[in-house]
From TrEMBL:
Chaperone among keywords: no
Organism, as annotated: Anaerocolumna jejuensis DSM 15929
One BP term from GO: CAAX-box protein maturation
Lineage, top ranks: Bacteria, Bacillati, Bacillota, Clostridia, Lachnospirales
InterPro entries xref list: CAAX_protease, Rce1/LyrA-like_dom
TM region positions: 21-45, 51-73, 93-116, 136-157, 169-192, 212-230
Name the record gives this protein: CAAX prenyl protease 2/Lysostaphin resistance protein A-like domain-containing protein
CAAX prenyl protease 2/Lysostaphin resistance protein A-like domain span: 138-224
Gene Ontology terms for molecular function: endopeptidase activity
Family matches, as Pfam families: Rce1-like
Source species, domain of life: Bacteria
Transmembrane helix in keyword set: yes
Keywords assigned by UniProt, alphabetized: Membrane, Transmembrane, Transmembrane helix
């Protein structure tokens, strides 16, 4: 066993026992949901006339909550960010991530077209659309908060911690299970299905590369294209 561990270390891999598990999953979900609920309550106090401020606070808050969740989960037992997917990957996987981000953006039109054929619900993207149409500066700030900070934070939590830990139990748990959790925390609306799609793509990439960065690229490209699209409505 000692020789096997030495061989794993020589190859730069993370031993199975040094990867996140259920303590990290439960801690991450508990802290993330608590933080997001508190953030949501605060955002609800901001009037509709300040929708641009509200949505940007949400993006910044999501990023900060996610970072706090990641570092707390890491500090529990493992204390090694490489074990949470913070490792370099080949350039080709980053390019694959960019291509999948574009594909996911196209896919969301298919998902939403089918969904809204059967279900009618209030527009839950109104704040994003308002901010995206608020001029060049407003759109630029929104890209930073909603298309960079939010994807970074969410990938650190949902792929770096949750998908990573669930990968112990195979592809179905690591990819589909983590994508389902990712979808549900976005609420029971059309975004659940969009998030589930992105979660599947990023879960596969994480399982293939053991790195969070290809999924971060997918998420940034996907969110950016959506925000740019909102700016044209």
């Amino acid at each position: 066993m000692d020789e096997q561990k030495k061989h794993i270390r020589r190859r730069g891999e993370i031993p199975e026992e040094a990867r996140p598990g259920w303590p990290e999953i439960l801690t991450a979900l508990g802290l993330y949901l608590t933080g997001i609920i508190m953030l949501g309550i605060w955002m609800m106090q901001i009037p509709d006339e300040k929708a641009i401020l509200r949505i940007n606070i949400g993006g910044i808050g999501n990023g900060l909550v996610s970072l706090a969740v990641l570092f707390t989960a890491c500090a529990l037992r493992v204390r090694n960010l490489r074990a949470f997917g913070f490792r370099m990957t080949e350039r080709k996987w980053l390019l694959v991530g960019a291509a999948l981000g574009i594909a996911a953006f196209i896919g969301c039109f298919v998902i939403e077209g089918v969904y809204f054929h059967f279900i009618t619900e209030p527009n839950n993207q109104a704040d994003f659309q308002t901010a995206a149409k608020g001029g060049a500066l407003s759109l630029f700030v929104l890209i930073i908060t909603g298309a960079i900070l939010t994807p970074l934070g969410e990938e650190f939590v949902f792929r770096g911690v949750i998908a990573n830990a669930l990968n112990r139990y195979g592809a179905w748990a690591g990819v589909v299970g983590s994508a389902a959790i990712f979808g549900i925390v976005h609420g029971f609306n059309v975004i659940l299905f969009d998030a589930f799609m992105v979660g599947i793509l990023n879960g596969i990439l994480f399982r293939k590369t053991k790195s969070v960065w290809p999924g971060v690229v997918v998420h940034i490209v996907y969110n950016s294209l959506n925000l740019l699209y909102y700016s044209t409505l």
